[in-house]
UniProtKB/TrEMBL annotation:
<dbReference type="GO" id="GO:0046983">
    <property type="term" value="F:protein dimerization activity"/>
</dbReference>
<dbReference type="GO" id="GO:0061564">
    <property type="term" value="P:axon development"/>
</dbReference>
<keyword id="KW-0539">Nucleus</keyword>
<feature type="domain" description="BHLH">
    <location>
        <begin position="90"/>
        <end position="142"/>
    </location>
</feature>
<keyword id="KW-0221">Differentiation</keyword>
<keyword id="KW-0238">DNA-binding</keyword>
<dbReference type="GO" id="GO:0005634">
    <property type="term" value="C:nucleus"/>
</dbReference>
<keyword id="KW-0524">Neurogenesis</keyword>
<dbReference type="GO" id="GO:0030900">
    <property type="term" value="P:forebrain development"/>
</dbReference>
<dbReference type="InterPro" id="IPR011598">
    <property type="entry name" value="bHLH_dom"/>
</dbReference>
<dbReference type="GO" id="GO:0070888">
    <property type="term" value="F:E-box binding"/>
</dbReference>
<keyword id="KW-0804">Transcription</keyword>
<dbReference type="InterPro" id="IPR050359">
    <property type="entry name" value="bHLH_transcription_factors"/>
</dbReference>
<feature type="region of interest" description="Disordered">
    <location>
        <begin position="169"/>
        <end position="213"/>
    </location>
</feature>
<dbReference type="InterPro" id="IPR036638">
    <property type="entry name" value="HLH_DNA-bd_sf"/>
</dbReference>
<dbReference type="Pfam" id="PF00010">
    <property type="entry name" value="HLH"/>
</dbReference>
<protein>
    <recommendedName>
        <fullName>BHLH domain-containing protein</fullName>
    </recommendedName>
</protein>
Length: 241
DNA sequence: TAGGCCATCTGGTCCT
DNA sequence: AGGACCAGATGGCCTA
């Protein structure tokens, strides 16, 4: 929704010379109003009715015509600056609105992602970055489970044992102690993803790299039906700052 | 009170 | 030209 004209003009620098922030401060004759109407209408602004021109005392020694020309030039410049500023302001307000909407959509998508991830027993809401890291690991773990199942390796029964994502509680225990997290390079116990130096590589062979700094006790690191030793090598490729 | 997380605003850049 | 996307700045709220 476009901001009202008053809002658009409220912070005009050039409006400071006028006591009013109303655009009508700059409109002094029918000609001006007529010229500004189409411009303003395209930007959703409204041009108020003209107001009478201010009374200006004569400057001695300068012809009346020249004084009038100067006054008109000055008013025209102020008007154009004000309109330009208000148009820019109007576009900014619209851009802000779109950006807000875009971020809301992004958050809705994150909420949708949270809803299909295993949830904590105490219903702790994952932060944005935790959600992304957790989702990454969860997908990797599921894929690895299917791979093991297809190979008939230990943990292969996990395909059948896997619970639906919403089947909380499936994440064991509180976050690991700080010492545990630190030993794995995590920033904090509650933020289990550590610094990742490697670019995304083949997720099927993550355990070889020392750069994957996840700890076995991390709550975002455990999934139902998966062998522990497998999960302990789950990578997090999302950089942690 | 410091730090983390978040929402919002903003200007720049890229794309259609 | 206008919209989408992005990153930096800022301020509010919450928690340890």
């Amino acid at each position: 929704m476009p901001a009202p004209l008053e809002t658009c003009l409220s912070d005009l620098d050039c409006a400071s010379s006028n006591s009013s922030s109303d655009l009508s401060s700059f409109l002094t004759d029918e000609e001006d109003c007529a010229r500004l109407q189409p411009l303003a209408s395209t930007s959703g602004l409204s041009v108020p009715a003209r107001r009478s021109a201010p009374t200006i005392s004569n400057v001695p020694g300068v012809p009346d015509e020249e004084q009038e020309r100067r006054r008109r030039r000055g008013r025209a410049r102020v008007r154009s600056e004000a309109l330009l500023h208000s148009l820019r302001r109007s576009r900014r307000v619209k851009a802000n609105d779109r950006e807000r909407n875009r971020m809301h959509n992004l958050n809705a998508a994150l909420d949708a992602l949270r809803s299909v991830l295993p949830s904590f027993p105490d219903d702790t809401k994952l932060t944005k970055i935790e959600t992304l890291r957790f989702a990454y690991n969860y997908i990797w773990a599921l894929a690895e489970t299917l791979r093991l199942a297809d190979q008939g390796l230990p943990g292969g029964g996990a395909r059948e044992r896997l619970l639906p994502p919403q089947c909380a509680p499936c994440l064991p225990g509180p976050p690991s102690p700080a010492s545990d997290a630190e030993s794995w390079g995590s920033g904090t116990a509650a933020s289990p993803c550590g610094t990742v130096a490697s670019p995304l590589s083949d997720p099927s062979s993550p355990s070889a790299s020392e750069d994957f700094t996840y700890g076995p006790g991390d709550p975002l690191f455990s999934f139902p039906g998966l062998p522990k030793d497998l999960l302990h090598t789950t990578p997090c490729f999302i950089p942690y700052h």
